[in-house]
Design goal:
By secondary structure, this protein is an alpha+beta fold. The chain contains ten helices and 20 strands. It folds into three domains: 229 residues, no CATH class; 87 residues; 49 residues, no CATH class. A hairpin with a 2-residue loop joins strand 19 and strand 20.
């Protein structure tokens, strides 16, 4: 699913949309020992309005965040199409519209038995229908729908007592520690998935979309053990891999100028593609051009294809948005300098009287030190 497709489903994921219906909702509470303590399967239309609003909110959050960071699409390997495979289990639950008890039990069993989770949590699964309306050349939606996109969305929500803070005890006129022993289910899921994906405005039962609230530390067990897919890389992994490629290829030519120019070049690629539906990728060919423009020698660039393949593997490339940094940080063991994007050209390195120096150009002699304003004479 690209940005545009996710935005379309998310926009209509509401009771007020005439194209969307949340039909059934399964809600399950699981204790830390993986025991199901309670399980309910209800028609959404019969759930009290305030309770249903919270469920709808939690399920909708599975569509939140950025593609390539919070949202990652995976294709099922061939092994997951057989009996008890992830694709087979998900498809059975989808086909049963969450009314087939045996199919629901298999899906819940797969989640609970295969997901690594330290605390108690709640599983919410919704069966949804989205009426896909035709669009004209201006991307405006017609009133009548041609066909439906049916999907299930699953939210994994942590459970905690929220036992913190102080409160005023009016009975004893005292401030005391708040004691809340109620198990509160968070509205914000830590993980989730949507199946099937909405691709080219139609369902694709061969792919699933995984959601994580923590892009730098996703729950890999959901991707690999529950969904049966091969985990690729988190946004943090992509940046670290990119840094390894630069270090191995550019080596002793890796300077402040090269690093900042590469960052700006990739930022420009992201900016130019902001209206594109697909995320731009940096492959070895694009990186070759970026490094060449930054002044890296041809001798160094000869090693790029092999190093890139070794570090990145079979992936088509690295997500450009995950590689850029918003603020350049220049650090030594004793000094750290944070440099904003607009000021990278005001910093340079040099050797003066045999000493390696960091030089910062000041347009204004006034500077702030520990919050106090002074000036450079």
């Amino acid at each position: 699913m690209n940005k545009k497709e996710i935005a379309e489903i998310k926009k209509n994921f509401t009771d007020s949309s005439g194209f969307f219906t949340l039909e059934h909702v399964i809600s399950v509470y699981v204790d830390p020992q993986k025991n199901i303590r309670c399980s309910e399967n209800k028609l959404y239309s019969l759930i009290p309005e305030d309770e249903g609003a919270v469920m709808l909110e939690s399920l909708k959050k599975v569509l939140s965040g950025s593609v390539g960071k919070n949202l990652m699409e995976y294709g099922f390997p061939n092994s997951e199409y057989g009996e008890n495979g992830a694709q087979s289990v998900l498809y059975s639950a989808l086909k049963g519209k969450l009314t087939d008890e045996a199919a629901n039990a298999m899906l819940l069993e797969r989640i609970i038995n295969n997901m690594e989770y330290e605390k108690a949590y709640a599983v919410m699964i919704g069966y949804c229908s989205y009426s896909i309306a035709s669009k004209d050349k201006n991307d405006d939606t017609y009133d009548e729908a041609d066909y439906e996109y049916n999907f299930i969305v699953t939210a994994i929500c942590p459970v905690d007592t929220g036992n913190d803070g102080l409160m005023f005890d009016s009975e004893n006129n005292a401030i005391v520690k708040k004691m809340n022993n109620e198990l509160i289910i968070s509205r914000k899921p830590t993980d989730g998935f949507l199946y099937p994906v909405f691709s080219d405005r139609s369902p694709d039962v061969n792919n699933v979309m995984y959601y994580t609230a923590t892009p730098k530390k996703p729950n890999i067990s959901v991707v690999e053990n529950v969904l049966g897919c091969e985990f690729t890389m988190s946004c943090q992994n992509e940046r670290e891999t990119f840094q390894q490629v630069l270090t191995d290829v550019v080596a002793d030519e890796l300077s402040y100028t090269v690093i900042t120019q590469v960052n700006e070049a990739i930022r420009d690629i992201v900016i130019r593609s902001k209206d594109e539906t697909e995320l731009p990728l940096i492959d070895d060919n694009k990186l070759h051009g970026i490094l060449f423009d930054a002044g890296v020698s041809s001798e160094k660039l000869d090693a790029l294809p092999a190093v890139f393949k070794e570090k990145v593997g079979s992936a088509d490339g690295l997500t450009a948005e995950n590689l850029i940094v918003s603020k350049t940080v220049l650090a030594t063991p004793e000094i750290t300098v944070n440099i904003s994007r607009d000021a990278t050209d005001k910093v340079r390195t040099s050797v003066i009287n045999g000493r390696r120096c960091l030089i910062i150009d000041l347009d204004d002699p006034s500077i702030s030190i520990n919050g106090l304003t002074t000036s450079v004479q």
